[in-house]
Design goal:
Strand 11 and strand 12 form a beta hairpin. The protein is mainly beta. The chain starts with a helix and ends in a 7-residue tail after the last helix. It is globular and about 50 Å long. The chain contains two helices and 13 strands. The N terminus is likely disordered. The longest helix is centred in the first third of the chain and has 15 residues. InterPro entries: M949_RS01915-like_dom (IPR058148).
Length: 203
């Protein structure tokens, strides 16, 4: 009887762990995503099955200062969906970007920065990623943001990319949201920032 109880406890504990699941990054029926999917991740935790999509959209527009139509708008979108039964429920949504840029526009997620963790070991996955935005005509840093979401709770670092060529940027400010973050979240965010802050490609 004791052995059976231990096995059941182990099974329940294993089921509650945060576990990344294989995913082909296709948008399932019942899920809405704007733009083109650039990355996605799926995991299982205490809340069930979760999916995060990162997507971008870009289009030519006619701006106030660009009547010829040579301005561009670029947007980044991010979504987390939780699956309950055979239906998906939106947990949170993020939208940011640049409107009517007559120069070189950028609004993109940093490659390989999307990941799921369980820093506070509460069997609820935190998803983190970075993205940059810019409207520029020179080799200067872009705006950079790092997001950590644990369900609807959002924590942010804001700053600039680091450009090796001109040795500029790379610094960040800590949003007040981190004052209520679980232990370890800020240290994790700082490590991720330093890992991904260097801007390699210019758009």
């Amino acid at each position: 009887m004791k052995k059976l109880t231990l096995l059941l406890c182990f099974a329940i504990g294993a089921k509650a762990q945060v576990k990344t699941l294989p995913f082909d990054k296709k948008v399932p029926i019942g899920v809405s995503v704007k733009g083109k999917v650039s990355d996605a991740i799926k995991w299982q935790d205490q809340t069930g099955e979760n999916i995060v999509f990162l997507s971008v959209e870009r289009k030519q527009v006619t701006g106030v200062d660009t009547p010829s139509g040579d301005a561009q708008t670029a947007k980044v979108h991010a979504y987390q969906y939780n699956k309950q039964g055979d239906k998906y429920q939106l947990v949170w949504e993020l939208k940011d970007g640049i409107d009517e840029c007559p120069l070189d526009v950028a609004a993109t997620f940093i490659p390989k920065s999307l990941q799921v963790s369980d820093i506070d070991a509460n069997q609820k996955g935190e998803v983190s990623f970075l993205y940059k935005t810019a409207c520029r005509g020179d080799v200067s840093p872009a705006l950079l943001k790092l997001l950590v979401y644990e369900q609807k709770n959002k924590y942010i670092l804001r700053g600039e990319t680091y450009v090796k060529m001109v040795k500029e940027g790379g610094k960040f400010t800590v949003d007040k949201s981190f004052t209520t973050a679980p232990k370890g979240f800020l240290d994790f965010a700082k490590k991720q920032w330093n890992k991904f802050k260097v801007e390699e490609n210019f758009e």
